[in-house]
Each structure stands twice: as C-alpha cells, then as structure tokens.
C-alpha cells in the first residue's frame, strides 16, 4: 500500500537548511494500522505530508496506493483520505454541506454523495446534526466530522495527522472507537501520527518510531517493549536484613544476577521481561532462601521506556530539535533543498 525509498525533505529556513526527514524507507501492507510516534519536530507530519502529496520530497521515492507521489499526485489524492491537524470544516457551513462539498471535490455523483454522507453520519454518530453549523459542534463532534470528510471518497488508505490532539481521554477513546469500527467495516489501511504514547500502544498494530527525521524502530508495540525495555518489579521487605537475604539469593541465580539494582535498603528492584509471568518464580526462589516480601509491585514497560532506551531522552519531555543543528555548514552543502517549500 505504501513503499518509500530514501525519502527526504529539506526546508530552507532563512539561511539554514532544516533536514526534517532524512531518508525514510518504509513498507506498509494493505490493512495495517500504523502509528508514527516521535517527539515534536521529529518529522512525522512532514513524512505524512509527502505521502499525501502535500509536500514534494527533496529526494527519494514513494508509491502510495499504487501511484507515484511525484509523477501521479492527482491519482494518489483520489485514492487516499487525509485528515490534517486542524479542523478542516468551515465554521459557518452546515455539517451536511461540508460533506457534500467534499463529495463534489471527489467528483462523486450527487446521489452517491448523499448516500455516502448519510452512511458516514450514522457510522460516526453525527446523525441529527446535519443542519447544524460546524461552529456549534463540540470538539469531539468536529473531529468526527473531519474523519467523515476524509472518508467521503471511500479511500482504501486513510492518513490521520494527530487525530486526537487536544481531546480529553473520553473524547479520544470515543473517536478511536469510531475509527476502528470504520476500519473494520471498510477494510482500510490506517496511517497516523501521534505523540500520545498510550494511544500508539493501545491502538496501533505497528509503531514506527521517528526521531530527528529518521526511523529508529519499527515493530508492534509489544515487540518494541520486549526488545528495548523491561518491566520493573519492586519487592519491599520488612527489614534491610531480609532484603539482603533476597539480594544474595538473586545474585546467586544467573537468571537474575545482573537484573537487579545493587542498592541498600528494604526494597529490591529487578528489571525483567514478562514481569507478571516471572514474579511467582522469583517469589518462590526468595521464599526458599528465607525472604518473603511484604509487598510486590510491577511497573510494565512503556513505549516511553523504549524511546528512552533508544535515544537517552524521554518522549514526555518537550523535545524540539534545534534548527541550528540542522543548519550546520555540512548541511548547507547538501543538495536536497526544496526551495519551493521553504517557510
Ligand atoms: N515549512 C517548513 N519550513 C521550515 N521548517 C519546517 C517546515 N515544516 C516543518 N519544518 C521543520 O521540520 C522539522 C520536522 O517537523 P514536523 O512537523 O514534520 O515534525 P513532527 O514530528 O510532525 O512534529 P509535531 O509532533 O510537533 O507535529 C521541524 O524541525 C520543523 O520545525
């Protein structure tokens, strides 16, 4: 459904070059639900905007839904849906007019457009709101209208840029419920960007982690956590002596010898895969050694741990890449500038 090779995008910002995307190779199969995850400024939106033909790549190639983004942009646009970061609908227009206008944009016959609008209003629980001006809708309703607009042309491939930014957790869950249902009903491929870790973890089947314009990891959330992060088990004992007994037992067992923190006190902290599955065996081992914890807690690995282990930085920090870094003398000699898109 998507195939890219060495996709790059360089912007000219004043005298500086900003290498927003630095050679992305990507394959997305039909039916996949893929999330681009990364900090602010990582290059997620720029990648998405190239795949949706809104920006032309500085170098490299991309085929999207069977068409080339450079040489067949109109064909790509016909075959995809795109839901950008802001609300696409005009404030004063009525909901139904927005949907029909979108139908005309995609050259749907009026009857087909009417039918499709009715179907989407139902599916996204917007029915009853047809005649309301967009400005009177709630934030969640407006975002669902954006989704409906993106689906008017029945695209086999839908791109969503930060679909749930600014929504409260309940609104986000509700939007996702709708998106997933639409996807199941229509068998769509979904590609989205997000900086909500939990959203990528819960919803995406595949997470492509982007940092500084480069793909640094690409796998299912479960696999990423297994490969790049650990669950953390904390056992708390009633006395330091007992904790020391536990540490001695762990040190003597090669499975755990280098998996726990050597620190004084009543707590023993272990890093491990499959913490919940490991815990009974660990308790058994400690019990046999004469140490029984008063409390045990497991903190499961997160995608933030994955990002931290891969980059040394937390995704939760506000991380905006320094343009100066991208505007170095070496960068200035690069020949991939696309002046047309300079900001
Ligand atoms: N039109 C532009 N002109 C100059 N620089 C740009 C332009 N668009 C994006 N950039 C820069 O390119 C880099 C990547 O931006 P991009 O918007 O793709 O990141 P992102 O990962 O989508 O971030 P966010 O999560 O904040 O949307 C940033 O350094 C950004 O400032």
TrEMBL record:
Residue intervals of the ABC transporter domain: 2-237
InterPro entries found in the cross-reference section: AAA+_ATPase, ABC_transporter-like_ATP-bd, ABC_transporter-like_CS, P-loop_NTPase
Alphabetically ordered keywords of this record: ATP-binding, Nucleotide-binding
Pfam families documented for this protein: ABC_tran
Keyword ATP-binding: yes
Gene Ontology MF terms in the entry: ATP binding
Domain of life assignment: Bacteria
Chain segments carrying region Disordered: 316-343
Record-linked SUPFAM superfamilies: P-loop containing nucleoside triphosphate hydrolases (SSF52540)
Comp. bias (Polar residues): 333-343
Protein name: ABC-2 type transport system ATP-binding protein
Organism, as annotated: Actinoalloteichus caeruleus DSM 43889
């Amino acid at each position: 459904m998507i195939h890219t090779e060495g996709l790059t995008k360089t912007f000219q910002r004043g005298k500086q070059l900003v290498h927003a995307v630095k050679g992305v190779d990507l394959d997305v199969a039909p039916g996949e639900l893929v999330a681009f995850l990364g900090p602010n400024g990582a290059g997620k939106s720029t990648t998405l905007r190239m795949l949706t033909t809104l920006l032309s790549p500085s170098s490299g190639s991309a085929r999207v839904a069977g068409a080339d983004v450079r040489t067949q942009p109109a064909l790509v646009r016909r075959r995809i849906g795109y839901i950008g970061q802001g609300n696409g609908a005009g404030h004063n227009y009525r909901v139904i007019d927005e949907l029909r206008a979108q139908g005309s944009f995609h050259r749907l016959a009026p009857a087909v457009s009417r039918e499709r609008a009715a179907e989407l209003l139902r599916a996204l629980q917007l029915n009853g709101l047809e005649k309301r001006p967009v400005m009177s809708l709630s934030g969640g309703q407006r975002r669902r209208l954006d989704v409906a607009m993106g689906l008017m042309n029945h695209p086999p491939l839908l791109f969503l840029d930060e679909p749930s930014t600014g929504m409260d957790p309940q609104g986000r869950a509700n939007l996702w419920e709708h998106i997933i249902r639409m996807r199941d009903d229509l068998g769509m491929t979904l590609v989205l960007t997000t900086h909500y870790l939990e959203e990528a973890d819960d919803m995406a089947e595949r997470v492509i982690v982007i940092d500084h314009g480069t793909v640094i990891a690409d796998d299912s959330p479960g696999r990423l956590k297994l490969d790049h992060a650990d669950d953390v088990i904390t056992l708390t004992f009633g006395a330091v002596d007992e904790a020391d007994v536990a540490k001695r037992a762990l040190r003597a067992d090669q499975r755990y010898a280098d998996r726990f923190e050597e620190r004084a006190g009543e707590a023993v902290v272990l890093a491990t895969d499959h913490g919940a599955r490991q815990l009974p065996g660990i308790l058994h081992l400690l019990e046999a050694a004469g140490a029984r914890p008063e409390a045990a807690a497991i903190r499961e690995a997160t995608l933030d741990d994955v990002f931290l282990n891969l980059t040394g930085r937390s995704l939760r920090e506000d991380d905006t890449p320094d343009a100066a870094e991208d505007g170095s003398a070496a960068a200035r000699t690069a020949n991939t500038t696309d002046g047309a898109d300079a900001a």
